[in-house]
Design a protein that fits this description.
The protein has 491 residues and is of the alpha/beta class. It is built from 13 helices and 17 strands. Strand 12, helix 9 and strand 13 form a beta-alpha-beta unit. Helix 3 packs antiparallel against helix 4 and helix 9 crosses helix 10. The N and C termini lie far apart (70 Å). The structure holds zinc ion.
């Protein structure tokens, strides 16, 4: 039985602090038995997270790729006037994306290798900005996933390392407390845990706080056990925190808007944070008067937002008096509730594109349901109405997804015109492909997260109108939508 040796432990922590963006695969990344589907929800229940709606002008930066053989989706939060903070997070993400794209390829099979990078705000104040980034990777029989909490000193506009949360001379005591918490934790594989405490450098990449003000020290998936979910241990921070650590704790428990100074930002409209009981829920009714049996209809659809710049696209639609359908990611809806509200108020159809964009075909029915319901809750909280349409991420669906969609009363809306705007981020290319493939009753897929797509649509819409098209929402295009059923167009 070993005990934590303070000097060794101090060296471990110091090294851990320097290993923020390691591109190396963890040696335990493909632990035996880790090939079963992981739980998608990375959020530990005890973790203290910040309601994104308290931050005026918060946005998300989103990207998605459906490249040959694998899928990626990533999102990070963006504070107004703080693109430099976003750049720090991109530094964390970039090597993970590069490695995944290089390694994970599978030409066929229903379930493709997939990397999803998501976020939680764990502290926010004018002094401290803390964001926990998680990456979940599923590919072939390889599997990896981890969490890292990025701490930023807002006033100094600098990243702080995990060690900066603590008084330097308290680090040995910290390691000792982590050891004590882990060694008595039945979820830990004691051999892996001991190896971890002995010198693995990524052990303490994710340190945040629980709702009770305890430290929440997280170990990556498969790092300290054969479990496919990350394990966090609670550690008493009493006497350990540095001045910055104390500010971080306060920003976790009593968060406030960091309000990074520069351009004044408008406050988002306050939104109801809880959804109405099912019996009182308002679902969106959008079937209009257009008769697509008579008129030459086409439905434009936009996925993966909302982002703040979705407003630019909404302006284009509004100027031309046309309606579209927006399939929103739940998590992004929580960052941009005012945009969700506007989408509904402008008369566009609301669609559900899941909470954090996983490939639903690898999830259980209950996980699929959670992805969908949580998203509908977020959209309803922002817009006052509940979406009735589902678009599975990547268009990946199966019988389980269809069954859950049917239970929830939602048809699955796919598409038959795809300009591949995620691949060629060029407005001319997007325009040419949409117009070149447009046809009567088509459902057109695009992504409002890309400026190149948003900028293409004024010309696209003008051309479609002059070609005699009537632009409609999906419920307008498709009468009598059947829950669970797949629709590719309005034929
Ligand atoms: Zn998508």
């Amino acid at each position: 039985m070993r005990t934590a040796a303070p000097l060794t432990a101090l060296a471990v922590l110091a090294l851990a602090a320097c290993s923020q963006s390691s591109t190396d695969a963890s040696p335990t990344a493909s632990a035996p038995g880790a090939s079963s589907p992981p739980a998608v929800d990375f959020v530990a229940p005890e973790l203290s997270t910040v309601d994104p709606t308290i931050i005026a002008g918060l946005d998300v930066q989103v990207d998605e790729s459906l490249a040959e053989g694998h899928y990626t989706y990533e999102a990070v939060p963006v504070l107004p006037n703080a693109q430099d903070f976003t750049a720090i997070m991109r530094e964390y993400i970039a090597p993970r994306l590069d490695r995944f794209r290089e390694i994970e390829q599978s030409a066929d099979g229903d379930t493709r290798p997939e990397l999803t990078i998501s976020w939680d705000i764990v502290a926010a104040s004018p002094q401290v900005w803390g964001v926990r980034l998680t990456s979940a990777e599923v590919g072939g029989d390889a599997f990896d996933g981890d969490a890292e909490t990025v701490w930023i000193d807002v006033a100094a506009r600098e990243q702080r390392w995990v060690t900066d949360l603590f008084e330097p001379d308290a680090l040995p005591e910290l390691v000792s407390r982590i050891y004590d918490a882990g060694v008595s934790d039945p979820r830990m594989d004691q051999q892996l845990f001991n190896e971890q405490m002995d010198g693995e450098l990524e052990a303490f990449d994710s340190v945040a706080f629980t709702t009770e003000g305890q430290l929440w020290v997280e170990f990556d998936r498969a790092q300290v056990s054969t479990s496919t979910t990350p394990i966090g241990v609670e550690v008493d921070p009493d006497g350990l925190l540095s001045d910055f650590g104390k500010l971080a704790l306060e920003a976790a428990l009593s968060p406030s808007d960091p309000a990074v100074p520069a351009i004044p930002q408008p406050s988002p409209s306050p939104v109801e944070s809880t959804s109405a009981p099912a019996s009182e829920r308002q679902t969106q009714e959008l079937e209009g008067d257009t008769d697509c049996g008579v008129e030459k209809c086409i439905a434009l659809t936009f996925d993966d937002g909302p982002v703040a710049a979705t407003n630019d696209l909404l302006d284009v639609l509004q100027d031309r008096g046309v309606k579209a359908t927006f399939f929103m990611v739940g998590k992004n809806a929580t960052a941009n509730p005012a945009v969700v509200k506007r989408i509904a108020e402008d008369g566009h159809a609301l669609g559900n594109h899941t909470w954090d964009h996983p490939q639903l075909t690898r999830l259980s029915a209950s996980e699929v349901r959670k992805e969908i319901e949580r998203t509908s809750d977020a959209i309803e909280a922002a817009a006052g109405v509940r979406p009735t349409l589902l678009r599975p991420p990547y268009g990946a669906t199966n019988g389980t997804v269809a069954d859950v969609a049917a239970e929830l009363g939602m048809p699955q809306i796919l598409w038959d015109v795809d300009p591949e705007d995620w691949k060629d981020k060029n407005s001319d290319t997007v325009r040419e492909r949409v117009l070149g493939n447009a046809h009567r009753n088509a459902i057109v897929l695009s992504h409002d997260i890309h400026s190149t797509t948003r900028n293409a649509y004024a010309a696209i819409i003008d051309s479609l109108i002059s070609d005699g098209y009537t632009l409609v929402t999906v419920p307008d295009l498709l009468d009598d939508l059947e829950p669970g059923k797949k629709y590719f167009n309005g034929k």
